[in-house]
Write a structure and sequence with these properties.
This protein is α+β, with helices and mostly antiparallel strands. It has helices at about 1-15, 15-30, 35-45, 55-65, 70-80, 80-90, 110-120, 125-135, 140-150, 160-170, 175-185, 190-195, 265-270, 310-315, 335-350, 385-395, 475-485, 545, and strands spanning about 230-235, 240-245, 250-255, 275-285, 290, 315-325, 330, 365, 375, 400-405, 420-425, 430-440, 450-460, 460-470, 490, 495-500, 505-510, 510-515, 520-525, 525-530. It folds into three domains: about 1-150, DNA ligase, ATP-dependent, N-terminal domain (DNA ligase i, domain 1, Orthogonal Bundle); about 220-425, 2-Layer Sandwich (D-amino Acid Aminotransferase, Chain A, domain 1); about 430-575, Nucleic acid-binding proteins (OB fold (Dihydrolipoamide Acetyltransferase, E2P), Beta Barrel), CATH 2.40.50.140. Strand 18 and strand 19 form a beta hairpin. Helix 7 (about 110-120) runs antiparallel to helix 8 (about 125-135).
């Protein structure tokens, strides 16, 4: 754990890319082969599994430290990070005497995967003993990292190109070759890592592993208006995924999480595709014969067990928009136009229909049949830029997230820096809301009350609708922190209820009905657009105004959870 802990602190403090690269080179030059694959998966941003709940970890650390719960809350409010707080309050690991044997320091794989496997099969008392035994072997900084890894909250991710560059220097090969190797290997063992780093290894793709899929650039679209070669598609509101057919069908998300067992109807629909085929696309949730909007995605992906009722009530489908491999041939270097022609031929030959490019306003109708859950994404008619703008203006009414523009002559990007796709999202919805509570933040706002809960008016009182912490400058964060400290009405751990004096304009991607929230609605991806200093709290928005913005298809959304007031001791962004 010690080498990976030191790497984590160096990466967190790195100000420039060359600092990050130097830290990676130093780490992988000395790391044992059994720990390197685990480190690579973590640093690549693979989805982390939660081996223990934050509540259990907090309870056991409080008991081990021998301090009251309220003092832990106060420490948390000061430190701003729960994993770090618990690591600091625990007793320091004792140094063995001269006659005692020094216990071996656990490596990353042993500390994480070995512990995680034992935690999954142990009962409550045994789980506690496993955690306590690891605490005795780790120093405070190591405990911080270990806590985050166990709880699935480790947030340091390195761009794959930078990671490949560092590994290439260690292995003595060129960067593009190392990047190709990284994409081609699952890296599940020390042998896989040694094979990755061997100078003469060929980049042979093994098994049902997906290709890397960088996101589309979400930036100003104005500079792109003069390009004549755009291929225009809808920006689907779902889960980006790849269908990989190699000796069977595997379904992978963009985070390289295998979800084949969560979406069996999609796997069944792709079963007839030829072997050595890889499709890029989006998983979409259905309601009846229609595709839902982004706010109404059922919780299929997060369920550990797929019950028959959940499968029948919330069916899913896959919409393919790119063909990355066919017949074992990698097509990513081919122009998009050629890949599109091959994709259309493939879908036509195997009976996968093309969606209607311009359906009526509202939810998108699609040809839903029990036998098919795989469709071809349509190309939109856009002969000039004014037609593109008209399509973008109609996107929200069609329950899609906007447009994606792709150059027809472009290859499929293998790195973020090569990415040429442009995601032109719908314009955000907005409402004026009142700041009603705050907690200490993280990152640049770690020492400030910089993460906020907001409410709107309903029946002469403020009802909480969202939590947000993005959109303010450092100067504004410091000024608001002073106001929060001067207007605190109630304290519960790190939570601070305040007198309603500040109004912010919130921007968000959508709003839907929810039985889980006190307000009866949930907003998607809220952020602070502007501090409305000239607006009084009494002039802020109302719940009725927010309900009027509910997007098509989200009016019947239900989280299947009892209606209850928010827990003030929860971190405000956990909704």
């Amino acid at each position: 754990m010690k080498p990976f802990t030191e790497l984590s602190w160096r990466l967190d403090a790195a100000a420039e890319a060359h600092d990050t690269r130097a830290a990676l080179v130093d780490y992988f030059r000395s790391v044992p082969a059994e720990d390197a694959p685990t480190a690579l998966k973590i640093l690549c941003g693979r989805k982390q599994s939660r081996s223990i709940s934050v509540a259990d970890l907090r309870e056991w650390a409080t008991e081990a430290a021998g301090i009251p719960s309220w003092l832990v809350d106060e420490c948390h409010a000061h430190v701003g990070d729960l994993a770090e707080t618990l690591a600091l309050i625990l007793p320091v690991a004792e140094t063995p005497g001269s006659n005692q044997e020094i216990p071996p320091a656990p490596g990353l794989t042993a500390a994480l995967l070995g512990t995680a496997d034992r935690l999954q099969t142990a009962d409550g008392a045994a789980r506690k003993k496993i955690v306590e035994s690891m605490w005795r072997l780790l120093q405070p900084q190591e405990r911080v990292v270990w806590h985050k890894l166990l709880c699935g909250t480790f947030r340091i991710v390195v761009p794959q190109t930078l990671l490949a560059s560092a590994l290439a220097e260690v292995a003595g090969i060129d960067g593009p070759q190392m990047l190709e190797r990284l994409e081609a290997r699952a890296l599940d063992s020390a042998a896989d890592y040694c094979d990755l780093m061997a100078p003469g290894t060929a980049a042979v793709r093994r098994g049902p592993h997906p290709f890397a899929a960088p996101v589309a650039l979400d930036s100003s679209i104005g500079a792109a208006a003069d390009r004549p070669d755009w291929q225009v598609e809808w920006k689907w509101e779902g889960i980006r995924a790849q269908v990989v057919c190699r000796g069977g069908v595997a379904l992978w998300t963009r985070e390289e999480e295998l979800v084949s067992d969560r979406f069996p109807e999609v796997v069944a629909a792709a079963a007839g595709l030829p072997d050595s085929t890889v499709l890029d696309g989006v998983l979409l949730a259905l309601r009846g014969s229609q595709i839902t909007g982004g706010m109404a995605l059922p919780p299929r992906r997060t369920r550990q067990t797929l019950l028959p009722r959940l499968r029948s009530e919330s069916p899913w489908a896959f919409v393919a928009f790119d063909l990355l491999e066919v017949g074992g041939t990698d097509l990513r270097a081919e122009p998009l136009a050629a890949r599109r022609d091959a994709l259309e031929s493939l879908c036509e030959d195997h009976g996968h229909p093309l969606l209607d490019p311009l359906p009526a306003a509202g939810l998108l109708p699609c040809p839903v049949t029990p036998a098919s859950r795989l469709w071809l994404s349509p190309l939109l008619p856009a002969p000039d830029w004014s037609a593109v703008e008209a399509l973008h203006a109609s996107a929200r009414d069609r329950a899609v997230g906007g447009l994606v523009l792709k150059p027809r002559c472009g290859a499929y990007a293998t790195t973020v820096t090569d990415q040429l796709w442009w995601a032109w999202a719908v314009d955000p919805l907005e409402i004026d809301a009142v700041l009603i509570a705050a907690v200490a933040g993280s990152g640049r706002g770690k020492r400030l009350n910089s993460e906020y809960a907001f409410g709107v008016w309903h029946n002469a009182r403020l009802v909480r609708i969202a939590s947000a912490r993005v959109g303010l400058t450092d100067e504004e964060l410091a000024e608001i922190d002073g106001i929060v400290r001067a207007t605190i009405q109630e304290k519960k751990g790190p939570w601070r209820g305040v007198t309603p004096t500040l109004v912010m304009r919130l921007a968000f991607r959508g709003v839907a009905v929810s039985t889980r929230h006190e307000s009866g609605v949930v907003v998607r991806s809220p952020r602070i657009a502007i501090w409305r200093k000239n607006v009084l709290p009494a002039e802020a928005g109302t719940l009725d105004q927010l309900r009027a913005l509910i997007e098509p298809g989200a009016d019947s959304l239900s989280f299947q959870a009892p209606l209850s007031p928010p827990d003030p001791q929860k971190r405000l962004w956990d909704d």
